[in-house]
Amino acid sequence: VLAGNQYIADYLNQSGVKILKVPTSLKLDDYQARKSQRTYSNFTICWVGTPNTWEQCFVPFLKIFLELADKYAIQFVIIGTKGNGFSNEKFFFYDWSESNEVELIKSCHIGIMPLPDTPWMRGKSGYKLIQYMSCDLPVIASAVGENINLVQHGVDGFLVKNESDWERYILCIMENKELQLSLQRNARQKAEDSFDVKKNALIIAKHIRKVLRK
User: How does pLDDT run across 38-67, given as a tens digit for each residue?
Assistant: First the structure.
């Protein structure tokens, strides 16, 4: 059985089946080839989702991010939703399309993945983080579910355990260019090592052949 994250793998372990954990993968070459067409003077934070995940994952943290946008030269690029009626001058909303997603992500300074700590959210496989890292972005994510396995704290991003951590880690990256560049390099290296569909397809094929031989 293929599992996309450790939470699902641990659940399936109860059944005694053999499990291969393979992270959600993407065409890394496409992410490398595309360049950002925008530049922002303010520190820009990216979030990618849908109208549903905006309500479920972002809105519970909206008060925190609004306070940060008010206090600092910070703005947000939101991809995949119009905000379900919410508007603010520091928030820029874009419809999702395959043609613009990578360029929009690359125009930002960091990518975030806030998550409430619920069983459903623990089962997510962290695709946002994988996309951000593939676009050379440092990441900041709630320490929930697969996020804990995807983010190496202080190396390619930061894991948030309480509300004050959001401000702490955003400012940490915002005010330290050398740290930001180090996190970028490490995030990109992790993407190349772990999230390239070419490499992971070969791993899956290898295990399928092993099963067939038996």
Answer: 777 799 999 999 999 999 999 999 999 999
Is the pTM here over 0.70, yes or no? Answer: yes
| Angstrom distance (rounded) from CA 208 to CA 204 | 6
The pairs formed by 83-92 with CB atoms below 8 angstroms and a separation of 24 or more are 83/54, 84/51, 84/54, 84/55, 86/59, 86/62, 90/66
Give 55's DSSP letter: I
Assign 3-state DSSP to the chain and report helix, strand, coil percentages, each to 5: 50, 15, 35
Tokens of 65: 């991010």
Q: Is 14 exposed, middle or buried (0-12, 13-18, 19+ CB in 10 A)?
A: exposed
Tokens (6 digits) for 21: 């954990």
